[in-house]
């Protein structure tokens, strides 16, 4: 994640803002195809892993349906590469289509290979495989700049393609025993149907969530400019500091909870995780607000407004993690249709807010719309879990989330008028945060000491 934050300034300084915007659209296209063609079976693999008697057959049953469908789609997409390229990127180059299709295939494969490492809790191998693509991207970009290579969007696509291929090779080597055994496993149609019954609703929920995250970029593409899209892309890349929290929880949280479910679960343990998650999210929020001014020293003048938008951009990944924690009961009870409904409602709200705010405020309007929509998404998922599984305290959670959102909206809408003041305000809030979550910090430190001792 830190390497990714180094890559962003390099791209911002070396490449045109419109190419940075095109890269953002390319990454959106990658995430969309991954969500659709996995058919939600990647989540089914996570859900059933600890309860499956044949994990190799489970891997094949969740990988093969979507991959077969993806190969068919890639064949047809190759015939329509020209209109697709113009529609997505605003211009045509033969490399755009072929490199995009290659990245789509490699991303799908790496998704499932990474799940093997994740579910088997092979943290070191997983972490190294995550570092490889970012490190390669940085090396290739610096090499291109120092050697005077072409600073075009085609260059960015080539760099991303090489990095994707490298991570597939790394995953394939680290999981060679598992996928070789899975390739010979016998499939059962009835099992695939059950997996699809669980996964497909999550796929639609994922597509709605993609719409929730992608709406701002698409509206900026159609109602604003590639320059504003570039600012939006860069601010979200820097907000990925908050995504460290998201990645850690997504890797550890779901597999751990499902293992607890398989062995029996205590509500007190989940309540402690909810409180500690809120404490960590608030700490990350304050850190981002306190040091957002430093971004000015990393980016060209075109991106001066990025520092004012960082807090709003940090809201979505933080609320996404908190929603995963507070709404785990929905997945435990397999009532995944509720998640889809909540996500769809937040997506529609985000679209309306973007259509209203983006034409006038550009990237600032986009991050504000995202933050408000994610609040609705978070509340909806949290309340759904309380309804279908068990009641739990929520007032403190909503209070801190609401205060954070208001501060972020003030910073984004006020621009330079508030940039110096809100950084100082964030520093003043540090002792308030320490006192408000004193129990949670004690629990976190105790857990860390216990883990270190063991």
Describe this structure in words.
The structure is a single chain. With 454 residues, the chain is mainly alpha-helical. It folds into two domains: 1-187, no CATH class; 198-454, no CATH class. It is 85% helix and 0% strand. The chain is built from 20 helices and no strands. The radius of gyration is 22 Å and the shape is globular.
Task: Considering the chains and any ligands shown, give keywords for the structure.
globular, mainly alpha, 454 residues, 2 domains
Total domain count: 2
The tally of beta strands, per DSSP, is 0
Query: Approximately how much beta-strand content do the residues carry?
Result: under 5%
Low-confidence stretches: none
Which helices and strands appear, and what pairs or packs with what?
Blueprint lengths: L1 H13 L2 H21 L3 H8 L6 H25 L1 H9 L4 H26 L3 H24 L6 H22 L1 H8 L5 H35 L2 H13 L1 H24 L3 H25 L14 H21 L1 H5 L3 H26 L1 H26 L6 H20 L1 H21 L1 H16 L1
Helix pairs in contact: 1-7, 2-6, 2-10, 2-11, 3-4, 3-10, 4-6, 4-9, 5-6, 6-8, 7-8, 10-16, 10-17, 11-14, 11-17, 12-14, 13-14, 13-18, 13-19, 13-20, 14-17, 14-18, 16-17, 17-18, 18-19
Condensed summary:
With 454 residues, the chain is mainly alpha-helical. Helix content is 85%, strand content 0%.
